[in-house]
């Protein structure tokens, strides 16, 4: 299986589909999940210092033995570590745990009001030093991005935010496209909350796919990088088996109307 790439605003390539690794609890579950995903052809892994599993990612990368340039690793600076100096230190610790010299994408996890400007300055320094191939933000909506642009020397390459038909905000996508920021969606499966939505079930049956596959495909057809999480081999394979069907324009438009503001994480509109 070949997963298409998108080209970020600094010319680097990022896979359109990857694996999320938030919150598994069992020992070694993440290491094993990453190994399954790499076997299935996945080349993008989305972690964060707050997930507490960067060492497990390192172990999986080591056991897979793929050339470093074939895998795209994202990690993020957590809220408590924000600020200029603190972010630089947090980044060093992430690199150490990941056993990497360079991360592919480093993100500000959340726009912490008092600290986010200084944090962005630290990310620009990390990028200038060549220790992150790209830098970006997460959970930034237009007010946060407007503020960032008042000080930024570098445009974020990526903005990662919650993205499923149930929290689809076209304005956020339009803003990112206008500024040449690649949108990346998290919780594309709404953590399974909508698997029995009859409208979703009917559409999935029409394509002979699961509701999970339909949700992944919907994100891809918006050209939004997406990172469904599973620790189970068969589910990882299922979530990546989405390149043999195309959702029609009419059905994409229908899915776009499913918005009911269902979210697994806080709404960035409530963060000033
Ligand atoms: N930037 C941020 O603030 C932020 C916030 C949240 C998430 N994220 C990132 O986005 C990733 C994805 O989001 P998420 O993990 O919150 O939610 P998600 O990907 O929407 O859903 C994951 C859940 O769905 C289950 N699942 C996955 N595939 C399935 C399938 N084919 N059939 C049945 N159940 C399935 C998983 O269980 P099993 O593992 O047991 O299969 C897990 O409970 C995270 O892992 C993380 O990397 C970022």
Structural write-up:
The protein is an alpha/beta fold. The protein has helices at residues 29-39, 54-64, 84-98, 116-128, 142-151, 170-178, 198-207, 211-221, 233-240, 249-255, and strands at 5-7, 13-15, 19-20, 44-46, 72-77, 103-108, 132-138, 158-162, 182-186, 225-226. It has a single domain (5-257), classed as Alpha-Beta Barrel (TIM Barrel). The protein is 39% helix and 15% strand. The strands form 2 sheets. The chain has an 8-stranded parallel β-sheet. It has a two-stranded antiparallel ribbon with strand order 1-2. The protein starts with a strand and ends in a 17-residue tail after the last helix. The chain binds NADP nicotinamide-adenine-dinucleotide phosphate. NADP nicotinamide-adenine-dinucleotide phosphate is lined by residues 20-22, 46, 109, 138-139, 160, 186-192, 212, 227-232, 235, 238-239, 264-265.
Topology:
Layout: E1 5-7, E2 13-15, E3 19-20, H1 29-39, E4 44-46, H2 54-64, E5 72-77, H3 84-98, E6 103-108, H4 116-128, E7 132-138, H5 142-151, E8 158-162, H6 170-178, E9 182-186, H7 198-207, H8 211-221, E10 225-226, H9 233-240, H10 249-255
Parallel strand pairs: 3-4, 4-5, 5-6, 6-7, 7-8, 8-9, 9-10
Antiparallel strand pairs: 1-2
Helix pairs in contact: 1-2, 3-4
Bound molecules: NADP nicotinamide-adenine-dinucleotide phosphate.
């Amino acid at each position: 299986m070949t997963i298409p790439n998108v080209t970020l605003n600094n010319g680097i390539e990022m896979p359109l589909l990857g694996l999320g690794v938030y919150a598994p609890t069992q020992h070694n579950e993440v290491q094993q999940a990453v190994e399954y995903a790499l076997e299935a052809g996945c080349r993008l892994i989305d972690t964060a210092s707050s997930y507490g599993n960067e060492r497990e990612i390192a172990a999986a990368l080591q056991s897979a033995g793929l050339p470093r340039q074939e895998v795209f690793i994202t990690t993020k600076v957590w809220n408590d570590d924000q600020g200029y100096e603190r972010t630089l230190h947090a980044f060093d610790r992430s690199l150490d745990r990941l056993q990497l010299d360079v991360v592919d994408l480093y993100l500000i996890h959340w726009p912490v009001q008092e600290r986010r400007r200084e944090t962005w300055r630290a990310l620009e320094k990390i990028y200038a030093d060549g220790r992150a191939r790209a830098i970006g933000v997460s959970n930034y909506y237009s007010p946060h991005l407007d503020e960032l642009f008042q000080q930024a020397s570098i445009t974020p390459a990526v903005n990662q935010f919650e993205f499923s038909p149930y929290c689809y905000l076209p304005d956020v996508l339009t803003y990112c496209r206008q500024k040449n920021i690649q949108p990346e969606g998290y919780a594309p499966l709404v953590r399974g909350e909508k698997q029995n939505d009859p409208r979703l079930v009917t559409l999935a049956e029409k394509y002979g796919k699961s509701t999970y596959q339909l949700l992944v495909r919907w994100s891809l057809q918006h050209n939004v990088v997406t990172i469904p999480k599973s620790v189970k081999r068969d589910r990882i394979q299922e979530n990546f088996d989405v390149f043999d069907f195309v959702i029609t324009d009419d059905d994409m438009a229908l899915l776009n109307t499913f918005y009911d503001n269902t979210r697994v994480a806080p709404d960035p509109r409530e963060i000033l």
